[in-house]
């Protein structure tokens, strides 16, 4: 595999030593990286039913239609004003940003992160920021292809299945390599905003990530201070999920695989992730913030945003921001742009996506009817009922 962690385990969490060079990503160790029909009904569900208190809705076949009037402005054109713009951040290190994506496969994480980069680049407040996505799946494919010179081999047994819960350690190794690369490029001043694109679907994984952020920020050899932003992407609409699974069948893992085989394999992968997923919550936000404050011995910045069903469900009650008293304009301006991107995502990108989904299910070009039949044979009511059962068994119904 890709190497072992120097971290220990206690109370079910991955941990690292913050005051020594033992952390997996400690700068004292240096860095190494191995190459390697949508119009069916009205959605009747409150925001608090979606994610608050660790609750999931039933996987919906319906599209919600409620957008506030103030969501009609693009964050690209808004004039931003903040109180205390002249406050100067007192930390000796220059700030950079780390966006931690959270979400199941086929929810749109990678697409939304690319849209966020586009928004940051188009806004005069943030257009100087150099942004980069660090995708754990791409790292896995690079390493796998370098090792076996082939795309993903479909598993015949649970021991061969990378995405089976029994093989969590293998997925964690790829995630750690990806996180290491992000820290390395941040510290080398190669980027200003690093987006950690992975499912990050368990409390254990997320705690480890923030432990390593603390280790980075407190390491005397680190040049910059990382400001963490949590961006949780959720999708509960069945047609959206089905469409996304269809698109996933054409990614690098399945380039040499027949369509139906790719659909079956990805559907199985998705079930594995549903069986382990724990959504990020305000309780977890508060615990992480307390943890960072204790280990960095400062009132630390921490931000939490949600995009639900491509932004057509408003997540205001789920989002939370903590600005420390010494927070300067750079952090405030950047978070302002991110916040407006979240609040206006449906107008900027979501409605266009919905039209693409409608067209996919409506048009019948050459072989398209055959494609839909193959997709429906796998991603059907039974499949979604299985996903819902996994959600309920996980304690989030």
Provide a descriptive summary of the structure in words.
The protein is of the alpha/beta class. The protein has one domain (8-80, 91-393): Rossmann fold (3-Layer(aba) Sandwich), CATH 3.40.50. 42% of the residues lie in helices and 12% in strands. It is built from 12 helices and 8 strands. It has helices at 47-50, 109-122, 136-148, 168-187, 203-218, 238-248, 259-276, 282-296, 329-343, 345-362, 368-378, 381-393; strands spanning 8-10, 13-15, 94-102, 131-135, 193-197, 224-234, 302-308, 320-322. A 6-stranded mixed β-sheet has the order 4-5-3-6-7-8, with helices on both faces. The protein has a two-stranded antiparallel ribbon with strand order 1-2. Strand 1 (8-10) and strand 2 (13-15) form a beta hairpin. Helix 7 runs parallel beside helix 11 and helix 7 (259-276) packs parallel to helix 12 (381-393). Residues 1-57, 63-91 and 157-162 have low confidence and may be disordered. This is 6-phosphofructo-2-kinase. Keywords: ATP-binding, Kinase, Nucleotide-binding, Transferase. One of its GO terms (cellular component) is cytosol. One of its GO terms (biological process) is fructose 2,6-bisphosphate metabolic process. Residues 85-324 form the 6-phosphofructo-2-kinase domain.
Query: Element order, helices and strands?
Result: EEHEHEHHEHEHHHEEHHHH
Percentage of residues in DSSP E strands: 5-15%
According to CATH, the homologous superfamily is P-loop containing nucleotide triphosphate hydrolases
Average predicted local confidence, pLDDT: 77
CATH class: Alpha Beta
Number of domain modules = 1
> How many helices does DSSP assign?
12
InterPro entries: 6Pfruct_kin, 6Phosfructo_kin, P-loop_NTPase
Protein name: 6-phosphofructo-2-kinase
Organism: Saccharomyces pastorianus
GO molecular function: 6-phosphofructo-2-kinase activity; ATP binding; fructose-2,6-bisphosphate 2-phosphatase activity
């Amino acid at each position: 595999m890709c190497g072992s962690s120097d971290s220990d385990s206690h109370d079910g969490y991955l941990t690292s030593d913050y005051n020594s060079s033992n952390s997996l990503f400690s700068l004292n160790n240096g860095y190494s990286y191995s190459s390697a029909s949508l119009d069916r009904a009205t959605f009747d569900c409150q925001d608090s039913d979606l994610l608050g208190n660790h609750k999931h809705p039933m996987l919906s076949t319906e599209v919600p239609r409620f957008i506030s009037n103030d969501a009609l402005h693009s964050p690209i054109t808004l004039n931003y004003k903040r109180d205390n713009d002249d406050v100067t951040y007192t930390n000796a290190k220059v700030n950079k940003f780390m966006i931690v994506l959270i979400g199941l496969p086929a929810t749109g994480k990678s697409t939304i992160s690319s849209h966020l980069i586009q928004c940051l680049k188009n806004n005069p407040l943030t257009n100087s920021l150099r942004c980069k996505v660090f995708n754990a799946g791409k790292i896995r494919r690079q390493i796998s292809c370098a090792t076996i010179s082939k795309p993903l081999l479909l598993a015949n047994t649970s021991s061969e299945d990378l995405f089976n819960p029994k093989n969590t350690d293998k997925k964690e190794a790829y995630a750690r390599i990806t996180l290491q690369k992000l820290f390395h490029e941040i510290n080398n001043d190669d980027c200003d905003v690093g987006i950690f694109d992975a499912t990050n679907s368990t409390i254990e994984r997320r705690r480890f990530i923030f432990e390593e952020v603390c280790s980075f920020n407190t390491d005397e050899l680190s040049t910059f201070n990382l400001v963490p932003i949590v961006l949780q992407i959720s999708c509960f609409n069945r047609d959206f999920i089905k469409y996304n699974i269809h698109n996933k069948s054409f990614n690098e893992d399945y380039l040499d695989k027949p369509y139906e085989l790719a659909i079956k394999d990805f559907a199985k992968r998705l079930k594995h992730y549903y069986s382990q997923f724990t959504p990020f919550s305000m309780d977890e936000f508060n615990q992480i913030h307390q943890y960072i404050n204790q280990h960095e011995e400062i009132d630390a910045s921490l931000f939490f945003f949600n995009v639900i069903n491509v932004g057509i469900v408003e997540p205001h009650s789920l989002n939370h921001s903590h600005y420390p008293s010494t927070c300067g304009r750079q952090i405030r301006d950047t978070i302002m742009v991110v916040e407006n991107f979240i609040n206006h995502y449906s107008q900027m990108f979501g409605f266009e996506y919905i039209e693409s989904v409608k067209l996919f299910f409506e048009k019948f070009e050459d072989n398209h009817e055959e494609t839909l039949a193959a997709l429906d044979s796998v991603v059907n009511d039974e499949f979604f009922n299985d996903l819902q059962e996994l959600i309920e068994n996980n304690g989030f119904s």
